Amino acid sequence: MGFKCGIVGLPNVGKSTLFNALTETAAAQAANYPFCTIEPNVGEVAVPDSRLDVLAKLAKSAEIVPTRLTFVDIAGLVRGASQGEGLGNQFLGNIREVDAIAHVVRCFEDPDVVHVGGKVDPVADIETVETELMLADLDSLERRVDALEKKIRGNDKEAKETLDLVNRSLALLREGKPARSVERKAEEEKLFHSLGLLTSLPVLYVCNVEEAAAATGNDYSRMVEERAKQEGAAAVVISAKIEAEIAVLPRGEREDYLAAVGLKEPGLNRLIRAGYGLLHLVTFFTAGPKESRAWTITRGTRAPQAAGVIHTDFEHGFIRAETIAYDDYVVTGGEAGARDAGKMRLEGKEYIVADGDVMHFRFAT
Questions:
Q1: Cβ–Cβ < 8 Å for 175, 168
Q2: Which residues contact 123 (CB under 8 A, 6 or more apart)?
Q3: Terminus of the chain with fewer CB atoms < 10 Å: N or C?
Q4: What's the pLDDT tens digit per position in 49-104?
């Protein structure tokens, strides 16, 4: 399953530096001027999960395959992007293709790096980007009303349901509130998602701080964290400059470097895990002599659909899932031990897969 997290923000906040560190490539050009990133760069990153190494050791696996997230580096937005300023229309279109937004916010002072607004003000920067996204959503929805009303006159039931969602979204957007705050029923979720609203996407704020504040944050990042708390959103403190330096170090030297700057792990690990949590994703595992592999699913996924992530035939012919909780797998020393201890369960089509389940699917061909 492909889950995309778009990296957005104003120009010169550190998006491309962060993207380079995430993917350990120079795919995104980092430069001290607006619009240095013209096309969105895409990179896949492994989701750090220590459980996978433990499983591989117990299963004597020849290979370890982590689950992955896709990050998309989207060029900087500016005030007026919703009316096409800068490269606004192109950027807004790129944002529509992601599942969540990692909003990088400048939380550092540096006279050598130009701020597009003239001064460092993370809350104002957040509001600039959010306003442009809301204006784009307003325009998108207002254009649909007439067509939907015509369909309703023709007794189109889905058009009536869609217009109801559109009007509820418009009411909030006109009050300066993002579409994600629209109250909706579970059965409306698919239709709401089909509207493709930029402000319906979940947001993770990434506070890009100076190197000295990487472990503790600073006054700017605390402002962002407070804003995130009020919105019910998440925030992560990170120094893109440090992450870029770590990314080019040999793996054996990274631990010493982290210790020297007061960090227990790369900030990117926290960012990736936060993105994973933001999308309500969980991990299940398959483990054997050939490989131990992590698989990504949305929380609440049932066993047949989880099997389908591995191969569509597994879902169509699903019979049952041999399931062992991660802790039971470890405590009993692996699959054979779990089976002997009665810790292997046979789960059917209604079983909701739990994070950490080690699974083997039985299916009919």
A1: no
A2: 223, 224, 227
A3: C
A4: 899 999 999 999 999 999 888 888 876 555 554 454 444 455 566 677 788 889 99
Contacts of 129 (CB under 8 A, 6+ apart): 8, 9, 10, 77, 103
Q: Report d(CA 258, CA 215) in Å as an integer.
A: 10
**Residues contacting 271, CB < 8 A, separation 6+:** 22, 102, 204, 206, 236, 238
Which residues does 54 contact at the CB level (< 8 Å), separation at least 6?
330
Q: Residue 230 burial by CB count (10 A; 0-12/13-18/19+): exposed, middle or buried?
A: exposed
Helix (H, G, I), strand (E, B) or coil at 169: helix
Q: Count CB atoms within 10 A of the CB of residue 14.
A: 26
Q: Produce one character per residue of 267-306: b if its CB has 16 or more CB atoms within 10 Å, e if not.
A: bbbbbbbbbbebbebbbbbbbeeeebbbbbbeeebbbbbb
- Strand 291-298 and strand 63-65: the pairing is parallel
Kindly report the backbone phi and psi dihedral angles of residue 185, in degrees, each rounded to the nearest multiple of 5, phi listed first.
-85, 160
Answer for the pair 353, 282: CB distance below 8 angstroms, yes or no. Answer: yes
For residue 219, the one-letter residue type is: D
Partners of 70 in the β-ladder: 4, 44
Convert the pLDDT of each residue in 246-288 to its tens digit.
888 887 898 899 999 889 888 888 888 888 888 889 999 999 9
